[in-house]
């Protein structure tokens, strides 16, 4: 693991955060624990080698950028709806010299039009309720791939409520991995997502499946 690149990322995050509100966590020790280590928890469940990974609602780059730093061979796409966050992500990709990494200013619903079932893995942290998130993420995942949601510790009710949505979108709940203060909801894509999903921007939230 390239500690120098993690330190550089942390320093850039703190510097940009003085101009734009990118994160409420601004202490380097907390950034390491709550952003970097948290983002990397997935590696305890999954070995990432040459997979294509899409991070939906990446914000300031979590979990996508730490995963790219830990697993440089992955092909990373960061999707983010807020322009200033995308500008930060593009700056980070350039500053850290990351190859096979891009940040796209778009909404997941729009991005899905040209990138259906194109990724081995979709990840998302702190973006939406699991029913909504499943509609944003599962259409992008190849059959046989995975969608992993970073969720809070107590997740049972939200997972149960998302049961129908996950099935409708071609997924199957594989496992909920528990960590202190974090649950990873691991969903396998088992069949193609019906063409009508995702619906137009905002509909997944307005009328969750
Ligand atoms: N994943 C990051 C993290 O954990 O630090 C950022 C979390 S932030 C609370 C949620 C982000 O999701 C926001 O930056 C927002 O702009 C983005 N977002 C929400 N809905 C989205 C959508 N439909 N498509 C793309 N980005 C979206």
Question: Helices and strands in order, then pairings?
Answer:
Layout: H1 3-17, H2 28-40, E1 52-56, H3 64-70, E2 75-80, H4 83-95, E3 101-105, H5 108-111, E4 119-125, H6 130-137, E5 141-151, H7 156-161, H8 163-168, E6 171-179, E7 182-189, H9 203-206
Parallel strand pairs: 1-2, 1-4, 2-3, 4-5
Antiparallel strand pairs: 5-7, 6-7
Bound molecules: S-adenosylmethionine.
The total tally of domains equals: 1
Largest beta sheet: strand ordering: 3-2-1-4-5-7-6
Order of helices and strands: HHEHEHEHEHEHHEEH
DSSP strand content: 15-25%
Heterogens: S-adenosylmethionine
Q: What is the CATH architecture descriptor?
A: 3-Layer(aba) Sandwich
Which shape, going by the Cα principal axes?
globular
Rg from alpha-carbon coordinates: 16 Å
Structural class call reads alpha/beta
CATH superfamily: Vaccinia Virus protein VP39
Oligomer: single chain
Describe this protein with a few key phrases:
globular; 9 helices; seven-stranded mixed sheet; Rossmann fold; 209 residues; alpha/beta; binds S-adenosylmethionine
């Amino acid at each position: 693991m390239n500690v120098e690149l993690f330190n550089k990322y942390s320093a850039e995050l703190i510097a940009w955060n003085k101009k734009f509100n990118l994160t409420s966590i601004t202490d380097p020790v907390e950034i390491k624990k709550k952003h970097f280590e948290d983002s990397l928890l997935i590696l305890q469940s999954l070995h990432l080698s040459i997979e294509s990974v899409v991070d939906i609602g990446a914000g300031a780059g979590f979990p996508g950028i730490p995963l790219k730093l830990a697993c440089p061979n992955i092909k990373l796409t960061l999707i983010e709806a807020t322009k200033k966050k995308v500008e930060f992500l593009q700056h980070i990709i350039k500053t850290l010299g990351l190859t096979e990494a891009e940040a796209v200013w778009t909404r997941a619903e729009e991005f899905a039009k040209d990138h259906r079932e194109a990724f081995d893995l979709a990840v998302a942290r702190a973006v939406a309720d699991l029913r909504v998130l499943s509609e944003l993420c599962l259409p992008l995942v190849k059959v046989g791939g995975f969608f992993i949601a970073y969720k809070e510790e107590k997740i049972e009710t939200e997972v149960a409520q998302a049961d129908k949505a996950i099935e409708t979108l071609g997924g199957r709940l594989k496992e909920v991995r528990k960590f202190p203060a974090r649950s990873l909801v691991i969903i396998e894509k088992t069949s193609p997502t019906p063409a009508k999903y995702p619906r137009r921007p905002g509909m997944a939230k307005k009328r969750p499946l």
